[in-house]
Amino acid sequence: MTADRVAEIEQAILARAPEHDLTPSLDRIRALLDLLGSPQETTPVIHVAGTNGKTSTTRMIDALLREFGLRTGRFTSPHLHSMRERIAFDGEPIDPERFIATYDDVAPYLSLVDGRGGPRLSFFEVLTAMAYASFADAPVDVAVVEIGMGGSWDATNVADAQVSAITPIAIDHVSFLGTTIEQIAAEKAGVLKAGGFGVLAQQAVAAADVLLRRAVEVGSPYAREGMEFGVVSRSLAVGGQLLTMRGLGGEYDDVFVPLLGIHQAHNAVCALAVVEAFLGGEVGESGSRGRLDLDVVRAAFAGVTSPGRLEVVRTSPTIVLDAAHNPAGATATAAALTEAFGFARVVGVFAAMADKDARGMLEALEPVLAEVVVTQSTSPRAMPADELAAVAVEVFGSDRVEVSPRLDDAIDAAVTLAEEEDEHLAASGVLVTGSIVTVAEARTLLGGR
């Protein structure tokens, strides 16, 4: 059966080195793609790097390009429920038959590269090769590719993108990318290349300095949020926000984005600038580009989705899922939760990976959570609930922390706490956060699509 074959392929890929285990070399992925005929060179590529906001920005770029009539391929990571979500065509996950056919096309070459000595191809390298191969085979008009981790040594960086976007950079993946903003920015700056155009989100000064130096060194023209483009105004709207954005080609007013938080407004304007740069042709003498059709831009943004990002999956009480997995992301989540929902009281459900800054995330969330139920996901990388509880008690105090090792029990406990304090339920909310795996498992439990 098709489902069994998909499951078999997923297990074969999962048996390889995990995607969070970065080896600083592109030799293996280049060797594999060479054997496949260099599919990454046959399709125009838009590359999205950064620390936070990559997936949402990638999905917005994809939506804009599709609304302008282009056939798109999209590669994102990690996935929520199915590995097939990572490779998408025209906004929809690769279908099972094509997923099987693509793996079967790539599989004969895996052992050839694995047998050359050194580490085997990793989980992420295999999926990257499958993405580029399937995009070339389709073919698509443009591939929108999200970096897995870092930049210079990320497997996706074998392509020379026409446009590269770098979303806000923060401390994350310190064991692989470095412990300072400058070190992490230097790694992510590797997507900026000669012949490409860079779109740079607002950055900390230290990160911006590194990115701009890289752009100058390689001769990549660039545009900066807050300088060449930016958010002019924003206001809350039912189910999202209404934006006026200044793009590279002009101003776009009354653009509804059905996502919450000021960080999504910044993601939106970066996505807009990327698509302007990609569709707008050469930069004029003034540095400007042609303005895109406003009605098309409005229609594209109105249809954007980003599952697991401040996503409401249940009401009475309201349960919100958010995939924040580092302190910067948790800070954005806390701000958006306060702005968009106006809850009088929020109970958190929190589970993090052992290699993440759980304390930093909890400290960011503490001002907006009345209580927190700490738990753990089923991931082998998950921080044990008891260990996480010890950290939570130091941040929240023992009277505001409850421990429930199973995620389903933790959600039930949080709902009970919310209901006990608010008989009308209108002013209470539950926030489930801490990692993408946590959100994925909560979505499954709560019936998210």
Number of helices: 15
**Main β-sheet: number of strands, strand sense, barrel status?**
8 strands, mixed
The CATH architecture of the largest domain can be named as 3-Layer(aba) Sandwich
CATH topology of the largest domain: UDP-N-acetylmuramoyl-L-alanine:D-glutamate ligase
Secondary structure: helix percent = 40-55%
Q: What is the topological layout?
A:
Layout: H1 2-14, H2 27-35, E1 45-49, H3 54-67, E2 72-75, E3 87-89, E4 92-93, H4 96-114, H5 123-137, E5 142-146, E6 163-166, H6 174-177, H7 181-188, E7 197-200, H8 205-218, E8 222-224, E9 230-237, E10 240-246, E11 251-257, H9 262-279, H10 294-302, E12 311-314, E13 318-321, H11 327-341, E14 345-350, H12 358-365, E15 371-374, H13 385-396, E16 401-403, H14 407-421, E17 428-433, H15 436-446
Parallel strand pairs: 1-5, 1-6, 2-5, 6-7, 7-8, 13-17, 14-15, 14-17, 15-16
Antiparallel strand pairs: 2-3, 3-4, 9-10, 10-11, 12-13
Report on this structure.
With 449 residues, the chain is of the alpha/beta class. It is 41% helix and 18% strand. The protein has helices at 2-14, 27-35, 54-67, 96-114, 123-137, 174-177, 181-188, 205-218, 262-279, 294-302, 327-341, 358-365, 385-396, 407-421, 436-446, and strands at residues 45-49, 72-75, 87-89, 92-93, 142-146, 163-166, 197-200, 222-224, 230-237, 240-246, 251-257, 311-314, 318-321, 345-350, 371-374, 401-403, 428-433. The strands form three sheets. The protein has an eight-stranded mixed sheet with strand order 4-3-2-5-1-6-7-8, sandwiched between helices. It has a six-stranded mixed sheet with strand order 12-13-17-14-15-16. The longest helix has 19 residues, at 96-114. The radius of gyration is 22 Å and the shape is globular. The two termini are 23 Å apart. The model is unreliable at 281-288 (pLDDT under 50).
